[in-house]
Each structure stands twice: as structure tokens, then as C-alpha cells.
UniProtKB/TrEMBL annotation:
Origin: domain of life: Eukaryota
Protein name: Uncharacterized protein
Family matches, as InterPro entries: P-loop_NTPase
Length: 53
């Protein structure tokens, strides 16, 4: 629950920065032991050059 709350806060901050002209978009991904395997593996997926994890 705490991780999801922080992820939401960071996603909102990333949207705000994007509106103010930040060149790279942020992709905020949770990572913790209780997260299902397929969701954990998302952190290893390749992102476009304009996206930062």
C-alpha cells in the first residue's frame, strides 16, 4: 500500500514536470517482493529513448 501511494505521487509529479517542458517522460514502476512476477519484470522492459524509468 505504501509503495503504491508513493508510485502515485511520483506519477503525478512526473505529469507536472512534463507540462512544464521536461524533455524526458518518467515511467514510475513499483518493485517489491510481494509484487506479481509479471509486474516485477516490467522494470526490465525497454523504453523509448524519450522515457526514463
Amino acid at each position: 500500500e505504501e509503495v503504491e501511494k508513493v508510485v502515485s505521487m511520483l506519477q503525478e509529479q512526473a505529469r507536472t514536470l512534463s507540462r512544464y517542458g521536461m524533455k524526458k517522460h518518467l515511467c514510475v514502476l513499483p518493485m517489491y517482493a510481494g509484487l506479481p512476477y509479471n509486474e516485477q519484470m516490467r522494470v526490465f522492459e525497454r523504453m523509448p529513448p524519450t522515457v526514463r524509468k
